[in-house]
Design a protein that fits this description.
This protein is an alpha/beta fold and 299 residues long. 24% of the residues lie in helices and 31% in strands. It has an eight-stranded mixed sheet. Strand 12 and strand 13 form a beta hairpin. It is globular and about 60 Å long.
Length: 299
């Protein structure tokens, strides 16, 4: 049986962020994930300036697709509002693998099935032992399933169901669009272009409302606009701090409303000249699938 100080189950943004912080502090960490990275991960891939800051990402040196939006376009019935702010899109296929590699933690492909606690920590599938265990496996996380599902059931009223597609597409509209309650949908839909000819489109709604209407349900997301990358990053950071500094692990303020981030970005959008311009300094501005991102100052 192999022993580690910390085992992290799940190599997505939450798990890789926790691993990154723990490895920087010298902890002995192993990440387990049932899939091999890079792996397909459907997601709008919308990240906020807060995510960029919390992950200390240098946008100029990020090696994969990253598109900057100088505005969001909000559609509510006949109301169409351009919202000046700064947001970004990435492809999760690339982003998640890059974060995991950057963490510096070893990764092993392993589908966790059974977890038990003993006097010195946790034992996973009779193959791994650890003092600290972090569950970062998302909706079907085996750590949640084995240790927390009965004592801390998920709040179904806050669960969002989504159906989306990410396709290669030579788009011409470089803005991100959000529609609310379109054609009677009890939720929202989106159009998110990605750099160099990729596009993500989808719909999302409160799962219970969809069930009440007799409509089919696909995968699950959580809360507000279903922006899950930011909450995942913050939960990973807090898990690492709980281990390293014995800080209380709390999530009650992690999954706040995305509109707060948008509002803060709107204020930053009108910052004095000389503020960061986001995408690589030598990025070519423009629209269309071959664009290399939009610089804030171009709009």
């Amino acid at each position: 049986m192999r022993s580690y100080e910390v085992l992290i189950v799940g190599g997505g943004p939450a798990g890789s962020t926790a691993a990154w912080q723990l490895r920087r502090a010298g902890a002995d960490v192993l990440v387990l994930d049932r899939e091999r990275f890079p792996r397909v991960k459907l997601c709008a891939g919308w990240i906020t300036p807060e995510v960029v800051r919390e992950l200390a990402i240098d946008l100029a040196s990020y090696p994969h697709r990253l598109l900057t939006f100088p505005r969001l376009r909000i559609h509510l019935g006949r109301l169409h509002v351009p919202v000046p702010c700064v947001q970004y899109s990435i492809r999760r296929f690339e982003f998640d693998a890059w974060l995991l590699e950057r963490s510096g933690a070893p990764v092993e492909q392993h589908n966790v099935r059974h977890i038990r606690a003993d006097a010195s920590g946790y034992i996973i599938d009779e193959a791994f032992r650890c003092k600290y265990l972090i569950g970062a496996g998302g909706t079907r996380c085996p750590v949640y399933r084995e240790l927390f599902r009965e004592v801390n059931p998920r709040e179904s009223a806050l669960q969002i169901v989504t159906l989306e597609h990410e396709i290669p597409y030579d788009w011409s509209d470089a803005d991100c669009h959000l529609w609310f309650f379109e054609q009677g949908l009890p939720g929202y839909s989106w159009y998110v272009p990605k750099e160099r000819g990729w596009l993500n489109v989808g719909v999302g709604a409160i799962a219970e409302r969809m069930k009440a209407r007799g409509q089919d349900i696909a995968g699950l997301a959580s809360r507000d606009l279903g922006e899950g990358i930011g909450p995942a990053i913050r939960s990973g950071l807090r898990a690492a701090r709980a281990i390293l500094s014995n800080e209380p692990y709390r999530l009650d303020d992690v999954t706040g409303l995305s509109v707060g981030s948008i509002a803060r970005s709107m204020l930053g959008r009108f910052a004095p000249a000389g503020a960061a311009t986001g995408r690589r300094p030598d990025a070519a501005a423009g629209t269309g699938g071959d664009a290399h991102g939009l610089r804030h100052g171009d709009q």
